[in-house]
Structures are given as C-alpha cells and as structure tokens.
Amino acid sequence: MDRAAEFKQLVEDIKQHHCSLRDGCIQAVPGEGNIDSPVVFIGEGPGKTEDELGRPFVGAAGKLLDEGLAQIDMQREDVYITNVVKCRPPGNRDPLASEVAEHKPFLERELELIQPKLIVLLGRHALQWFLPNEKISSLRGTAKRQGNRIFFAMYHPAAALYDPRLKDTLFSDIKKIPVLLQKIDELQNDASFSPQSQGALF
Ligand code: URA
C-alpha cells in the first residue's frame, strides 16, 4: 500500500472505531491536511464544532490557529492538524488518561506515516502525552528532541481565547516554526548529528 492509501485506510479506521467516548459524540474526527508536511500540529480533542463537522480545529480555536498560520504565510492545507483523542469528550471535559491511551495507536500511526520533522504540541494535553515531565508554561516557545522526534510546545489556541494576553505569545511562538524547520534541516545535514540525542534544542 502506498502512503496515500495507508492514510485513507487510517482515516477510515478512525471513523469506524469504537471507543469509550464514541457513544457521547456525533462522530470521530480524524486528522487532516498535508501528509507530506514537515510539521504536524497536535491539539487535545474535538470540540462541539469539530464534532458536528467531523474536522479538527474548525471552531473558534481553529480560527485562531489559522490566523497564526497566516503569520508564517501558511494555510491549514499546508500542514497536518490532528488531536490526541479523536472523539469529543462529553461537555469538552479533559480527556481521561484511559481515553488518551485508547486513541494512542491512531496518533502513532499518523506520525509514523507522516514522519514530520517537527511536532507542534498545542497545550498541556498534547505535551503531557509526549513529554510528561514538562510544564507548558516553561517549555512553550522552545524545541526539545526525544529519540528521533523533535517537539515544539505552544499554548493551545483556546487558552488565548480565554486570556487574550496570550495571543501575542501564541503568535510570537508560531513565528519560530519556519526558523526551526530550517535549523532542523541544517542539523540533519550535519554528520555529527545523532538522531538518538535527547534534550533542549533551540
Ligand atoms: N481544540 C482541540 O484541541 N482540537 C480541536 O480540534 C478543536 C479544539
């Protein structure tokens, strides 16, 4: 199967799956966007609008993410956008650890397929999943390497909706992404680069 077919199968598997959140939501919301993108954005889980439309980040938080992408001359179609959990938790409550674990194989398959150079963690749920010992308030705006993955943490756009003072921070962080991607290219072309190294990067 080629990548496009594998992705189509994954989307189908996500749409058809049954999990503990499934009875309480309208539909599962697969990730979407460019599977050749060097960058993947990971949020928490679908909200009301996403549940209704079956697409990630299409409500108010998504509009802010689109605005942020426009700051770096990108559109949502240029990147891949997904969530830790693919089904809306009731009343938008935080997903439970058990629910996140149920959905983990989907997220792992997305990342395996796309092999992004940079994984952008939007907010504490995405951060907790990959870097459980880190705090969003201290890590945001910085990149961290773990194994062969490079993460960049940002506030969740919904946080900037609740507290508009965070909007400037969100936008100044997103503006670091093109520079980071360039630095990652340079690093990977450096013969001394070890893909297994850990720790803070830039
Ligand atoms: N918040 C998220 O974390 N994901 C969405 O898809 C929408 C809002």
Q: Give Rg in angstroms.
A: 16 Å
Chemical compounds bound to the protein? uracil
Please name the CATH topology.
Uracil-DNA Glycosylase, subunit E
Regions with pLDDT < 50 over 5+ consecutive residues? none
Average pLDDT reading: 95
The rounded distance between the terminal residues' Cα atoms is: 37 Å
Q: Which assembly state applies to the chains in this document?
A: single chain
- SS field, number of helical segments: 9
Output the keywords:
single chain, 202 residues, alpha/beta, Uracil-DNA Glycosylase, subunit E, seven-stranded mixed sheet, binds uracil
Word description of this protein:
Helices cover 44% and strands 14% of the residues. With 202 residues, it is of the alpha/beta class. The protein has one domain: Uracil-DNA Glycosylase, subunit E, CATH 3.40.470.10. The chain has a 7-stranded mixed sheet with strand order 1-3-2-4-6-5-7, with helices on both faces. Helix 1 runs antiparallel to helix 4 (97-114). The chain is globular and about 50 Å long. The N and C termini lie far apart (37 Å). The model has no long low-confidence stretch (mean pLDDT 95). Uracil is lined by residues 43-47, 50, 56-57, 59, 61-62, 83, 158.
